[in-house]
């Protein structure tokens, strides 16, 4: 139960951060917001680990580097997908990342329930419906869908290696993850050279986004030492429920009925996977 509550806490913090961050990214640019957020998250987790004290207990925290690479690819896809599409569509598709750790768990011998298998099917069908929109009387892929699928893959393959790092040492696993993710984003920034200046008020908001995202990583890493990867990962994947809810309240996004049905079916599928 403790593991699932920690994973649920991760999904709550990620849900808020994954709404505010990409929303700001629409105005100020993906890499600019990501870099400031990642750096603030690194500062936060460094302070937390310093207070906690002690060195890493196991070299297995090295898995966090692989998790950081996958998650950074997913996050770029997620931010860019929301920059070109609607949050209400992109977030649930990205949340279908829950399928990856379940399949990983099955490969390692986990026995999924009938509900989880139904959930996987529902999520796949839901993603297909949410991905389509009417354009000139014809059905076509909605804006940002390809990037949302990239986000789902990146986020999905974050869970197994981060679970291994967190099970070895949640504090240092989270620190190494954030340090590596800052490095990967910095490489992208150096290659693209975007403007990095932000108004002070925006910097503070982005800093909170980075802290929230990092807190989610810490909570998931802590859950990893107390539960199966297939269970903790899918529970942490419930964050799109929060993100979609915030988009409905603050942005009043409009999508077609078919897409609405797809979003609902995807969220139901994610919920079934987590049971």
Automatic annotation (TrEMBL):
A Pfam short name: EamA
Protein's UniProt keywords contain DNA-binding: no
Signal peptide: none
Annotated ranges, domain EamA: 2-131, 144-275
TM spans (from-to): 33-53, 60-79, 85-107, 140-159, 171-190, 202-222, 228-251
Keywords noted in UniProt: Membrane, Transmembrane, Transmembrane helix
Cellular component aspect of the GO annotation: membrane
Name used for this protein in its record: Unannotated protein
Source species of the chain: freshwater metagenome
Record lineage: unclassified sequences, metagenomes, ecological metagenomes
């Amino acid at each position: 139960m403790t593991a699932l509550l920690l994973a649920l806490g991760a999904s709550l913090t990620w849900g808020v951060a994954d709404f505010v961050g990409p929303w700001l990214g629409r105005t100020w640019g993906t890499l600019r917001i990501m870099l400031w957020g990642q750096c603030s998250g690194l500062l936060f987790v460094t302070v937390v680990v310093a207070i906690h004290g002690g060195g890493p207990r196991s070299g297995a925290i090295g898995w966090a580097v692989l998790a950081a690479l996958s998650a950074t690819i997913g996050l770029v896809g997620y931010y860019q997908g929301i920059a070109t599409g609607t949050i209400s569509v992109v977030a649930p598709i990205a949340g279908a990342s829950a399928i990856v750790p379940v399949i990983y768990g099955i490969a390692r011998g986990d026995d999924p329930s009938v509900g989880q298998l139904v959930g996987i099917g529902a999520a796949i069908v839901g993603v297909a419906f949410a991905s389509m929109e009417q354009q000139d009387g014809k059905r076509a892929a909605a804006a940002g869908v390809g990037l949302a699928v990239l986000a789902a893959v990146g986020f999905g393959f974050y869970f197994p290696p981060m679970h291994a790092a967190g099970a070895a040492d949640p504090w240092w696993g989270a620190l190494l993850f954030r340090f590596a993710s800052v490095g990967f984003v910095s490489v992208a920034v150096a290659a693209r050279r975007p403007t990095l200046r932000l108004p002070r008020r925006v910097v503070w908001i982005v800093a909170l986004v980075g802290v929230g995202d990092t807190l989610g990583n810490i909570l998931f890493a802590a859950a990893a030492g107390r539960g199966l990867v297939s269970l903790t990962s899918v529970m942490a994947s419930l964050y799109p429920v929060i993100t979609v809810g915030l988009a409905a309240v603050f942005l009043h996004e409009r999508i077609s009925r078919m897409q609405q049905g797809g979003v609902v079916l995807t969220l139901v599928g994610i919920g079934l996977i987590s049971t």
